[in-house]
Structure formats: C-alpha cells, structure tokens
Recover the amino acids of this structure.
C-alpha cells in the first residue's frame, strides 16, 4: 500500500545548521502520527520542511507516491500538504465566515461544511477573528486548514495556552479529520499523553534523530518516553520498532 506521506532519509535545518537527519517514516491515510520530543529536538523545523517552507539537504518526501520538490511550498500545498502553524495566523479583521471563504477551493468544501466538526463556530460566524477566544481562534485555524481538503495535515502545538475544554474539543477534531476525511495527520504536541491518546502511532525525536518509534498504545506510560526526552542518548536495547508509523 502506498503511504499517504513518506519520508526517506530526510535531513534539513535552518541555514547552514543541520537540525535533523536520517528521518524515515510513513503515515497512512486516516491515521495520526504524534511527533514528540524535547525543546530543540527539531520538530517544528521538520514540519516546516514537510510543508516546503524550508529546503531539505538530503532524502525525499512523497505524497501518495509522488515526490515533492525541495523547498517549494506552493507545490507541496497543491499536492495536498497543509500546515497549521503554532502562531494562529488569522485575518483578524475578517469574520469567521470570511476567513473560511478566503481559504476555500473552487468546487470543494464550503464554509458551512466546517460546522460539522467545529459546531462552536456557528454562533461566532459573523464575529471578526481578532475578537475570538484563543480556543475559538484555534478552531478557526483548524477549520481553515480542513476546508482546503488536505491529504496531509501538519499541526504544530495547537494546545499552547488554551483552556482544557478547548484542548479536548480540538483533539477530538483532529481524530475526526483523520477518520472522516481520510487525512494523514502529523501532530507536534507538548502534552505527551494527550498526543498519544489521539494518535495511532508516535515517533520521538532527540537531537534531530528518531530515537523511539511505536504505536501510541504501546508508548502510553512507557519509560522509553522519559528516556528519550531526558537521556543524552537512548541505548539501542531500549528501542522497539513497530511497523505502524
């Protein structure tokens, strides 16, 4: 089966600084991959590279078996890759409806379709983005990504600074986006257990390399997570490979 998203021996960084190397993973349609690791591990840089916003220096990225061109964000987007950044980049002077209209694609989903997954936005439909709460803004950002009908959705730290109820609703939305829209999701998240609860599979980066890879169920409460976050290096005997990711 062809993977929806496939990375092979990927290396990249920022400028001349190599941030990650030898990144190798697959995500199937309808599945969520949690991308975990301590601060500075290279998670956000990897997402920006997958989205074409940063060039890679080695390896390859493919969507549905078609290789992406290095450092070409428009081509990545046309191939179905959509990034949800950690800064909630909204048009704050436009209403919820207009924010979605701007992102909608011809002959695709329409703004009202987003209310199936984000019903809380209906009562805020004519409210400007800048007047929304943090949780509502993040829902709008996610809805604006979904209306583009992504094959691959990259989500960076969506729970940052949000109330627990909003976080719960957003994680439920991630699960539904994957299942209902046949989307491959790569989720970077600071709350490890929340990420593992919603994800099917997980990889942990430390110092730019994958040190743990397994199903999320297997990693819940597993001491390898703590070792991966806080150990200088993870001994080979602690690694447990799984074909899920």
């Amino acid at each position: 089966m062809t993977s929806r998203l496939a990375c092979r021996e990927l290396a990249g960084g920022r400028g001349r600084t190599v941030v990650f190397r030898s990144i190798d993973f697959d995500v199937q349609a309808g599945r969520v991959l949690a991308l975990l690791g301590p601060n500075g591990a290279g998670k956000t840089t990897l997402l920006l590279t997958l989205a074409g916003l940063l060039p890679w220096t080695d390896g390859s990225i493919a969507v549905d078996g078609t290789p992406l061109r290095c450092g070409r964000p428009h081509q990545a987007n046309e191939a179905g890759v959509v990034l949800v950044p950690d800064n909630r980049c909204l048009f704050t002077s436009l209403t919820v409806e207009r924010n979605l209209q701007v992102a909608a694609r011809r002959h695709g989903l329409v703004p009202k379709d987003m209310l199936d997954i984000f019903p809380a936005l209906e009562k805020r439909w004519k409210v400007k983005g800048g007047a929304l709460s943090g949780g509502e803004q993040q829902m709008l950002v996610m809805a604006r990504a979904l209306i583009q009908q992504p094959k691959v959705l990259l989500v960076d730290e969506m729970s940052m600074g949000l109330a627990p109820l909003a976080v719960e609703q957003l994680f439920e939305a991630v699960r539904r986006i994957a299942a209902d829209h046949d989307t491959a999701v790569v989720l970077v998240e600071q709350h490890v257990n929340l990420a593992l609860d919603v994800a099917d599979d997980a990889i942990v980066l430390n110092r730019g390399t994958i040190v743990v890879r397994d199903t999320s169920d297997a990693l819940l409460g597993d001491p390898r997570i703590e070792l991966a976050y806080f150990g200088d290096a993870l001994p080979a005997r602690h690694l447990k490979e799984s074909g899920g990711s």
Observations:
- Strands lie at 5-14, 17-27, 32-36, 56-63, 66-67, 81-84, 152-156, 184-188, 201-206, 209-215.
- Confidence is low (pLDDT under 50) at residues 233-245.
